[in-house]
Amino acid sequence: MDKMNDEFYMSLALDMAERAQGQTSINPVVGCVIVKDGVMIGLGTHLQRGKGHAEVHALNMAAGQAAGSTAYVTLEPCSHFGITPPCSERLIAEGVIRVVIACEDPNPQVAGRGVAMLRNRGIEVEVGLLRERALRLNEKFIKYILTRQPFVTLKSASTLDGKLATKTGDSKWISNGESRGIVHTLRHRHQGIMVGVNTVIADNPSLTTRMEVPGLNPVRIIIDSDLRTPLEAKVITDGQASTIIVTTERADIDRKNALISAGVQVLVCGEGPRVDLQEAMVKLGELEIGSILLEGGGTLNGAMLSNGLVDRVILFFAPKISGGGAEAPGTFIFPGVELMKDAITLQGVEVETLGDNVCISGTPVPRGSASQETSAP
Question: What pTM did the predictor assign?
Answer without folding.
Answer: 0.91
